[in-house]
Write a structure and sequence with these properties.
Elements lengths: L5 E2 L10 E3 L11 E3 L1 H4 L4 E2 L3 H10 L15 E10 L9 E3 L8 E6 L2 E6 L5 E9 L4 E9 L6 H16 L6 E2 L7 H12 L5 E3 L14
Parallel strand pairs: 11-12
Antiparallel strand pairs: 1-4, 2-3, 3-12, 5-10, 6-7, 7-8, 8-9, 9-10
Length: 215
């Protein structure tokens, strides 16, 4: 996954990463790694003409093709993720990546969220919701299963994408425990979320404090 895009970046040793424990310099209630020096300075590009052309075609898609999509080896996660109402019905809503540095497109039709990779069009998550005057509630997530799927990270990813790309909040994203070095975390973070990620954590983020703006 890391090789799909070339990165115009500085030598590895010039990047500055810093861990923050919960406290005065950390607005979140989790221990975080500040990886902005990498995720906010890199530009994702590709030398593959087919990838570039597909990305551009997908900018014109309304996502209707995903409505009938079913996962071949589906797993289902029961959830209870709650968000403030957006003021809109949960249908005919589209959130599109504007550049290669934004890695996800999100479509919403008939109370179902479709999370797709912006540069391949691959459907990764379907999240089913209910809506009332107080909350939008995600009660179920579907995804393709394989040996590498971490169910808890899948749920965190859906929460992160809704919070950052739809509600425009800021919170750390969760990274797998197998990532040991700060550079590994930064590479994973940029590959997964591009310039939409600022901070990483090994912890569950479902109860994490959300910021409304960077600063």
């Amino acid at each position: 996954m890391f090789k799909l895009f070339k990165k115009k970046d500085k030598p590895e040793q010039t990047y500055k990463f810093e861990w923050y424990d919960v406290g005065e310099r950390n607005p979140f209630n989790k221990r975080i790694l500040d990886c902005r020096n990498y995720t906010q300075t890199n530009l994702a590009t590709t030398s593959d003409k087919n990838i570039a052309e597909k990305f551009n075609r997908l900018r014109q898609s309304d996502g209707n093709q995903y409505i009938s999509h079913g996962f071949k080896n589906k797993i289902t996660l029961d959830t209870n993720l709650k968000y403030p109402p957006t003021g809109s019905q949960l249908t005919n809503l589209i959130f599109k990546a504007q550049s290669f540095d934004e890695k996800w497109d999100i479509y919403i039709y008939d109370n179902c969220f479709y999370f797709t990779r912006s540069w391949t069009g691959e459907l990764i998550y379907k999240a089913f919701a209910t809506r009332d005057s107080n909350h939008v509630t995600i009660y179920k997530i579907e995804l393709e299963t394989n040996d590498s799927v971490d169910k808890s990270i899948a749920m965190c990813n859906v929460h992160f994408l809704i919070t950052t790309q739809i509600l425009k909040g800021i919170l750390p994203h969760r990274v797998p425990a197998k990532l040991k070095t700060e550079m590994e975390i930064a590479l994973y973070s940029f590959s997964q979320f591009g310039n939409k990620c600022w901070y990483a954590t090994y912890d569950d983020i479902l109860d994490t404090v959300i910021k409304t703006s960077e600063g």
